[in-house]
Amino acid sequence: MHALALFTFGLGVAFFMKSQEIMIVIASLLLGTLIGEIIDIEKRLESLGNSLQSKVKGVGGSFSEGFVTASLLFCVGSMAIMGSLQSGLSANHEVLYAKAVMDLVAALIFAAAMGLGVAMSAVPVLIYEGSLSLLASVASPYLSNAVVDEMTAVGGVLLMGLALSILEIKKIRVGNMIPGIFLPIIIMLFMK
């Protein structure tokens, strides 16, 4: 897992280097984090996961528990959102490929403990990530290359933060920073 986390960090650096306007990246990260902290995206996602998990325990059976646990684990991360957006906006699938390898390792571990339900989580993951990617690809023609580059750079910083969390160097609430990915669209409108 450490090798994949280091790869994720390197990918984040490469994405960050696409920026032509560092101040847009900084402003997007600051404002996006402020919005995310006010909304407390990470806490809400965690609460959703805990709520669904408690309902599954009431149903009983490791199939349901494995299905819900794996679905949440694979869908509720910032890497799923960033990877899907990157895939749809610029046809760059590197983040999703790295995520797929990490998910495979986690799925094998969970499947050993929870059974077939873990494998079935592939369906909601496909729908979720596919929908985000499709929406991003539909929006892509309306966004300039400069906007996509700045969105990519913000996503790169988030990937670096995610890698630091995976490596347990520093727990960074990357989920609360996700709104920053979309802010270059608005900020660059005012720069024209």
UniProtKB/TrEMBL annotation:
Name of the protein in question: Putative membrane protein YdfK
InterPro entries, alphabetized: DUF554
Keyword Chaperone: no
Transmembrane segments: 67-89, 101-127, 147-167, 174-191
Keywords, comma-separated and alphabetical: Membrane, Transmembrane, Transmembrane helix
Entry annotated with the keyword Ribonucleoprotein: no
